[in-house]
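pasting for the record
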Amino acid sequence: MKLSRLRVRNFRCFQDEISIDFRDIVALIGKNDSGKSTLMDALDLFLNDIDPDKDDASKGGDPSDLTIICEFTDLPDEVILDDANPTKLSSEFLLTAEGRLEIHKIYSGHLQKPRCTSIEAYALHPTVDGVKTSSNSRIQTLRNEPINWV
């Protein structure tokens, strides 16, 4: 898998969502205090299951929506999601319209000890007419638009 895009929201100096596309990128260049290290720290939190520090939430943003999003391309042909049965991410409807695996990690930046509160995969699910879920279901009515699986 290859990291193709990083999006960060309400994390340190990035109150509004910022998106960085990784197209053969080998270096982040910018002035001091422009956010280069913050982006690397966001990747560290996301990829290594580390909890943020109490001061990592953006001061002017919504600390309960401290979000780091990674989108991946060059995905494996097969994965094992259930026991030992190989499957394709596309067959499981876990890809976006662009064919990417998009994972959102939301953290509780407003707490004294912030932690990850939600990990969501955003995907494009096929349309199924007349299918509805119960009101207490965590899965939205199936329709042809991105939905998040919690």
